Amino acid sequence: MDVHYTAVATANGRDGKAVSSDGRLSLSLAAPREMGGDGEGTNPEQLFAAGYAACFASALAAAARGTRQDVRDVSVTAEVGIGGDVEGGFGLTVVLRVELPDDLENGRELVERAHRICPYSNATRGNVPVELVVE
User: Fold this and answer.
1) Euclidean distance between CA atoms 32 and 77, whole angstroms
2) Cα atoms in the 13 Å half-sphere on the side-chain side of 104
3) φ/ψ bin of 128: left (φ > 0), alpha (ψ from -120 to 50), beta (otherwise)
4) Distance separating alpha carbons of residues 74 and 88, to the nearest angstrom
5) Are 35 and 80 found together in one domain?
6) In whole angstroms, what separates CA 18 from the centre of its chain?
């Protein structure tokens, strides 16, 4: 693979801090209350959800570019769940809710194409169940 960009961040646990190498990202981390934490910081699932939503919206724009359709008003919401898996570890689930303009032609097809080209979708495929909801 021809790498165009590498993001670098360092974290010291769920109840700590995450910092990007360029200093633009600097967050306090805390486990959510639902997992026994105080919920007073960002958690990895929120970061993953934000990254996936942004990346998927960009992939949708790339998918629409060939059709000359305007997807500027598209909204992508990622819901990332975490829980115990059958092997005693932890696993993730993802629901991507894609809100499309009413006049968009073949919206479901564009969403499915975006799912095929999105780097987050490609990284999770076969590992994390991802549900696509077109609204």
Assistant:
1) 19
2) 25
3) beta
4) 38
5) no
6) 18
Rounded CA-CA distance 116/59 in Å is 9
User: Is there a single domain that holds both residue 51 and residue 27?
Assistant: no
Q: What pLDDT, on a 0 to 100 scale, did the predictor assign at position 103?
A: 76
List, for residues 30-53, the tens digit of each pLDDT value.
999 999 999 999 999 999 999 999
What CATH number corresponds to the domain at position 2?
2.20.25.10
Domain co-membership, 37 together with 62 = no
Q: How far apart are the first and last CA of the chain?
A: 34
Residues of the chain falling short of pLDDT 70: none
Task: Report CA Rg, the chain.
Answer: 17
How far apart are the C-alpha atoms of 57 and 23, rounded to whole Å?
A: 25
Structural domain including 11 reads 1-42
Regarding whether 65 and 28 lie in a shared domain, the answer is no
